[in-house]
Amino acid sequence: MTSTPDTSPTESINTSSQPSDIEIARAARKRPITEIAAKLSIPEDAVLPYGRDKAKIDRDFLAGLGAPKGKLVLVTAVTPTPAGEGKTTTTVGLGDGLAQLGHRVAICLREASLGPCFGMKGGAAGGGHAQVVPMEEMNLHFTGDFHAITSAHNLLSAMIDNHIHWGNALDIDLRRVTWRRVMDMNDRALRDVATGLGGPGNGFPRQTGFDITVASEIMAILCLATDLEDLQERLGRIIIGYTRDKTPVTARELKADGAMVVLLREAMQPNLVQTLENTPAFVHGGPFANIAHGCNSVAATRAALQLADIVVTEAGFGADLGAEKFFDIKCRKAGLSPDVAVLVATVRSLKMSGGVARADLGTEDAEAVTRGCANLTRHLGNLRGFGLPVVVAINRFDGDTEAELAALRDHVEALGAEVHLCTHWAEGGEGTQTLAARVAELAASGEANFTPLYPDEMGLFEKIETVARRIYGAEGVDADAKIRNLLAEWEAAGFGDLPVCMAKTQYSFSADPSLRGAPEGFRVPLREVRLSAGAGFVVAICGEIMTMPGLPRHPAAESIGLNAEGEVVGLF
């Protein structure tokens, strides 16, 4: 299968006579970005505008802020289905609801990749009346961060081949160059390519390929770095390949880290925008939720926690991927301690987890909801295992029946958990009032006792097994001797304290996307491991995961264009 960044094409699948997402966003009453910044006490001279409605926040201002003081709320979800969960929409709606209750709030989201926008029509701005604006710019070029990351990545690629061409003083083994190239577009034809063809003047021929930009280690690095100094240190640690005697070669040895950090200097500054209800929102970074950790940047989250009383953020895909990585990678490395988790579920997605085909979702089936709740049960138990209070948010869709909603509510309450019905897609922050009030109460209660899943000193393979057993419900992990030996070599080289970043399908707890619900009796096949020394984690690739998606038979790009007034049409 091909995994794509967590940009669901169904964030706004609620069916009614309401205008489209883009029509709603275009009618927004946006305030000047300096006014939005003022809500967080950001002075005008620290706001670096990109037009009237988006800006970057000056790094010197952020460096002068005190310790984070805000409460951190994570919004995550049940296992994704084509029926839609609405995690981003719920994050935005909850932020607006908290603001309506008088709280000083900031929302933290990831940026959108162009690949899904032109591929499967997936955006990253929410939907309906719970959106971040300017939606069009956010889902297209925005402030150019992804372009900077693409350029920095490909500069390193060019310097690798250039070094080899001019004598290869580092003795890089052409067969063991692991650094590929990237572009922010879905293009399956570039997954595997040969470079350097055409004679000696074009360098040495070798096999390589392209990944999508969100899968770049530089994207993960930018999102985990705390400042420019930390950014350059991490960039220098990137392992680009190995010598003939299998010694790792780094970007620092190629003298590429300085130029890369120059290209990323502006991209490192968080972006500030607003919701439809003018709530401040930091939208910064967008790492692949499979191959990387799927969270917005540490820089943006820390800034939000320094400036707001409550910060609402999200993590990619379902809680087994996004929340686990948020806790075990981002929070562990950034010293963050979340206060509340919100688990988003929909009747539609649970019906699919309960065995209902997408074409039959319109038919009432409360029993299928109950069967599908096995998926929610496992996610809920996992979240509680991290020591956080958890509430369940039902993102209501127009076709949900009272019997189906009652089945979902009864199941959650039987588990001793709280459940809140939310209508933010249609009503904005007003539709999350009860959820917002409870989240604020829990955030202030001090009930959280956050604990990561495993300690730093645990062995790498044991960490992988711990995630597979305790989060996925697997019986174990299958890995050949070559993989186990490689992990042992990395431990001996001083990388044993790194967290693991599990790369598997988002559609199942297992590595098989066809196993819905809460499967049991399965084992996780560990196909490959990769050392992301700059980002600071070990990637464990389970099953078939691709880092360059392809376009569908009828990509969204076919229906995107400009109308007679020069406005974008076909984009959501």
Ranges where pLDDT stays below 50 over 5 or more residues in a row are 1-13
Biggest sheet layout: 12 strands, mixed
Q: Determine the structural class based on helices, strands and strand pairing.
A: alpha/beta
- How far apart the termini lie comes to 25 Å
Helix content: 25-40%
What is the 3D form? globular
What is the strand content? 15-25%
Quickly count the helices.
Answer: 19
Q: What is the count of β-strands?
A: 25
Work out the radius of gyration.
23 Å
State mean pLDDT (0 to 100 scale). Answer: 93
Summarize this, please?
By secondary structure, this protein is α/β, with parallel strands linked by helices. It has 19 helices and 25 strands.
Descriptive report:
It is a single chain. This protein is an alpha/beta fold. The chain is 34% helix and 19% strand. Strands 1, 2, 3, 4, 5, 6, 14, 15, 16, 17, 18 and 19 form a twelve-stranded mixed β-sheet that branches. A four-stranded mixed β-sheet has the order 20-22-23-21. α4 (87-100) packs across α17 (433-445), α7 (145-165) packs across α8 (217-224) and α13 (347-353) crosses α14 (366-384). Mean pLDDT is 93; it is low at 1-13.
